[in-house]
């Protein structure tokens, strides 16, 4: 049986066929869903940008809104990401506060 050692396979730059816009942004795009891939000059990511733009157009078409540009099509995704980041940040600060209170109580006890 032949060994595969030493054989260099071409890396595929195509994401899985059933990928969502959000996961495409998280794993493949330069700046996540904030990427402006329609203006991107990054050679490795240009195919991802084309897929992202196509998915944005399909998303707007499903919502039956008229096309008003990529910035407005990506706005809800960006807003959702901002909310998620804010919620995560609040969660981390609450954990820090709890740890600080617990340490303070241990020192005074």
**Alpha carbon gyration radius:** 21 Å
Overall mean pLDDT score? 78
- What portion of the residues fall into strands of 2 or more residues? under 5%
Q: Shape from CA axes?
A: elongated
Q: Kindly, what is the distance between the CA atoms of the first and last residues, rounded to a whole number of angstroms?
A: 69 Å
Structural class: mainly alpha
Largest sheet: none
Count of alpha and pi helical runs: 3
Number of strands: 0
Low-confidence stretches: 1-10
Can you give a write-up of this model?
This protein is elongated. The chain has helices at residues 21-27, 46-62, 70-108. Helices cover 58% and strands 0% of the residues. The chain starts with 20 loop residues before the first helix and ends with a helix. The relative contact order is 0.10. Mean pLDDT is 78; it is low at 1-10. By secondary structure, the protein is mostly helical.
Brief digest:
The chain has helices spanning 21-27, 46-62, 70-108. The chain is an all-alpha fold and 109 residues long. The model is unreliable at 1-10 (pLDDT under 50).
Core attributes:
elongated; 3 helices; mainly alpha; disordered N terminus; 0% strand; 109 residues
Task: Chart the SSEs and their pairings.
Layout: H1 21-27, H2 46-62, H3 70-108
